[in-house]
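Researcher: Next entry: Release factor glutamine methyltransferase (Mesorhizobium shangrilense).
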Amino acid sequence: MADHLPEALGPLLRAARARLDAAALDSPNLDARLIVEHFSGTTRTQAIADPMRTVDPRAIAEIDAALKRRTSGEPVHRILGYREFYGLRLSLSPETLEPRPDTETLVEAVLPFAKATAREGACRILDLGTGTGAVALALLSAVPEAIATGVDVSEGALATASRNAERLGFASRFKALRSDWFAKVSGRYHVIAANPPYIPSEDIENLQDEVRDFDPRLALDGGVDGLGPYRIIAAEAAGFLEAEGRVAVEFGHTQRNEVTEIFSAAGYRLAGAFCDLGGNDRVLVFEL
Ligand SMILES: C[S@@+](CC[C@H](N)C(=O)[O-])C[C@H]1O[C@@H](n2cnc3c(N)ncnc32)[C@H](O)[C@@H]1O
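Model: Predicted structure:
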């Protein structure tokens, strides 16, 4: 029988943490806090300042259900329905990858160039495989003069990206485009950014359960060697790049040499290489 959850905020948090701890989850403290705060509408400060504050019974039932989903392996942000990325709250849907902190490296890698380009008059950004819109919307938040097109082959992902753009106040500067990479793209861009699927097909089964079972396969599977999307991007980007524009790609931390070779063979020069917060190779920026 499930434990009865207390109705006072402090004890409720402790009980939630104990349940997740007992299920041997990686971050029981953080997950318990996120779940309790989200469904009770309370803040960390309230939990500290007023731990005996009573939580509504309906919220307790929702917290109970969320804890059950979490202990059966569903990622905490799928349960909440959103994830923070570059300071923006992005809604998720079954068709979108959960944006990861590592991808903020891609935003940081092109930001100085995007800002400088915007100062000169215009900055058009193409975000290939936009998912929730994470990369495009983060860049729009940091470069107020920029406009962005988010491309995805998934209709569901594009609907989520458009909703995120609308809710964050970027709708007038963000366009969602359904396209198989460049197939329907037109015009020229100062920045072409992509975090494409890069897992080799045969490795998908060996991914962590939370990734394999909850992130869409379309967002993960990069083909036989995981490099298929890079070959397409390297072969076609030049036709959509402004003179002196930049192409920036995220990749798996063991793929730096292969990605470099693919872009070098297509005539690009390396303009920058960036590691993620864990010190792994993560992003390369190219110019023609
Ligand atoms: C790794 S996810 C990245 C999502 C988002 N940019 C992020 O960083 O959180 C890759 C994205 O590429 C999209 N995608 C896969 N194949 C595609 C294709 N052929 N053309 C356009 N987008 C594609 C997927 O739907 C998914 O949204």
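Model: Note for the record: The chain has twelve helices and nine strands.
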